Amino acid sequence: MKYIEKFQYITHDIPHLSHIEQVQLACEAGAKWIQYRCLSKTDEELLQDINAIAEICDDWGTTLIVTDHVHLNGKADIQGFHIEDMDADFIALRKLVGNDITLGGSANTLKNLIRLASEGADYAGFGPYAVTETKPNDYPLLDLEGYQQAIRELEEKGIDLPVLAVGGVKIYNVEALMQTGVYGIAVSGAVNFADDFIEAYQDFYSLVKESAVN
């Protein structure tokens, strides 16, 4: 079983902080897991970012996951990939990257979750919980009952897949979300746009750990 962190931080294209600056701050705050999410750069620019970020993560002992861009596997010190395409073929992806690389996927329905588990994904980001400006989409929002029901059905089917609530999650949502049985929480904007990035990160991290029921 691969290590999957319960509180995952996701970088984003924002005007006031570069991805590298976001990662530096997150690591200073104690981040154990960073998802580099940049869909706006060329491969050359991505690799420049990723190599700098990988160095920072290495210094802090932080896991580095890259959103999509699986073709960059082996070209930088990347521990895993998060695939946002809910129709992606994870069996083919696993053959491509090998067993040592962590593979996570996005999901919006129980059916998505079951397929991810059956195709060997290591974890799932399940959402959106609320409206999110980080990743605008038309997927139906999942309320607390939606999370609770999905987790219960996975358990009934004997499916062991770490499921993280994602999409517009605020600090005041954490306790209730964790009580649904989700494995953890992933955030971007709630930390990136906080008055104090490091304090916001640490508040989230502590609350997720304290609220964990599994």
Describe this structure in words.
With 214 residues, this protein is an alpha/beta fold. It has one domain (7-211): TIM Barrel. 38% of the residues lie in helices and 16% in strands. The chain has eight helices and eight strands, in the order βαβαββαβαβαβαβαα. Strands 1-2-3-4-5-6-7-8 form an eight-stranded parallel beta barrel, surrounded by five helices. Strand 1 (7-10), helix 1 (19-28) and strand 2 (33-36) form a beta-alpha-beta unit. Helix 1 (19-28) packs parallel to helix 2. The mean pLDDT is 95. Pfam families: TMP-TENI. Keywords: Thiamine biosynthesis. This is Thiamine phosphate synthase. Pathway: Cofactor biosynthesis; thiamine diphosphate biosynthesis.
Brief rundown of the structure:
Pfam families: TMP-TENI (PF02581). With 214 residues, the protein is α/β, with parallel strands linked by helices. Helices cover 38% and strands 16% of the residues.
What secondary-structure arrangement, pairings included, does this model have?
Elements (H helix, E strand, L loop, with lengths): L6 E4 L8 H10 L4 E4 L6 H18 L2 E5 L12 E4 L6 H8 L4 E6 L2 H9 L4 E4 L17 H13 L6 E4 L7 H5 L5 E4 L1 H4 L4 H15 L3
Parallel strand pairs: 1-2, 1-8, 2-3, 3-4, 4-5, 5-6, 6-7, 7-8
